[in-house]
Amino acid sequence: MSSRDEPTTSALAQPLRVPSLGRAALYLGLFVLGAVVGAAGALTQPAWFPGGLLLALAAEAGLCVGAGRAVGRRGGAVAPAVGWALAVVLLTTSRPEGDFLFAAGSGSYLFLLGGIAVAVICATLAPVRQPDGGSVRLRK
Predict the structure, then answer these.
(1) Would you call 50 helix, strand, or coil by DSSP?
(2) What distances in angstroms separate CA 48 from CA 5, 42, 53, 61, 74, one per listed residue?
(3) Cβ of 51: how many Cβ atoms within 10 Å?
(4) Short-list 85, 82, 77, 71, CA closest to 22
(5) How far apart are CA 51 and CA 10, in angstroms?
(6) What are the C-alpha distances in Å from 14 to residues 2, 9, 56, 119?
(7) What is the three-class DSSP state of 53?
(8) What is the rounded distance in angstroms from the CA atom of residue 27 to the CA atom of residue 20?
């Protein structure tokens, strides 16, 4: 049977493979970097209110877009976005002593909702892996 007679399958129908150790370490590093950017943004945005908020959101967008382009896959943008979201959600909880990081104000809500929107937009617009083969129409 020649290669022309074989049925072609979609890239979505291919089984998932475990990432290599190097790629898993890269995604873990991007996850941690996203958490650091989220924590730094949580501290920066109330300190210099409109500029700090814009700086924190721009840092998150730059990290997600840059990581997605550097890795060349959507996972490169998703890993720091998930790290950012996890760090920020964990920082919203109050401690038993009554301490908290986010005050109930418009700046905090804009940081939380704007940051989630930026993460979703960057992860959605990140480059997607293209399957190889002549019968695939994604590159054309």
Answers:
(1) helix
(2) 64, 11, 7, 19, 32
(3) 11
(4) 71
(5) 46
(6) 21, 7, 38, 27
(7) helix
(8) 11
Q: For residue range 99-115, list pLDDT tens digits in order.
A: 666 667 777 888 888 88
CA 37 → CA 44, 55, 61, distances in Å?
Answer: 10, 11, 10
Q: For residue 55, what are the contacts with CB-CB under 8 A and spacing of at least 6?
A: 41, 44, 45, 48
* Alpha carbons 31 and 28: distance in angstroms, whole number: 5
- Spatial CA neighbour of 38 closest among 104, 99, 82: 82
Phi-psi region of 98 (alpha: psi -120 to 50; beta: other; left: phi over 0): left
Contacts of 108 (CB under 8 A, 6+ apart): 45, 46, 102
For residues 68 and 74, give the distance between their C-alpha atoms in angstroms, rounded to a whole number.
6
Tens of pLDDT, residues 10-26: 666 677 778 788 888 99
| Per-residue pLDDT tens over the stretch 61-93 | 999 888 888 887 888 889 999 999 999 888 887
